[in-house]
Specification:
Blueprint (H helix, E strand, L loop, with lengths): L1 H19 L8 E3 L2 E4 L2 E4 L1 H12 L3 H6 L1 H11 L22
Length: 99
């Protein structure tokens, strides 16, 4: 009885350690401003910020953590058709960017 419990404990420990050392494959994957999921593509703020950062030449982390950096990036490239919809919240009614 003790040997089988010890054997099962060892098997469980090996199995769990293998799970813990696997790379995180469930991270967010983006295709442009869209997030890739098992249901297809859909817009997500994370991917939009990453895409805007790529187009504007900024760090995605900086854009996510600092709204004024995002505003600056939108002022720089916000007229680019690829990011117009991402930067729409930084525009005034006349189409100019908020300063």
């Amino acid at each position: 009885m003790k040997k089988s419990v010890a054997f099962l404990t060892a098997i469980a420990a090996v199995t769990l350690s293998g799970v813990a050392t696997q790379p995180a494959s469930a991270g967010i994957r983006c295709q442009g401003p869209d997030q890739v999921s098992q249901y297809g593509l859909h817009r997500s703020p994370w991917c939009e910020d990453t895409y805007l950062a790529h187009i504007a030449g900024y760090s995605p982390r900086a854009i996510r953590q600092n709204p004024s950096i995002k505003q600056e990036a939108c002022e720089l490239v916000g007229h680019d058709i690829r990011v117009q919809d991402i930067c729409i919240g930084f525009r005034q009614e006349n189409g100019d960017f908020v300063r």
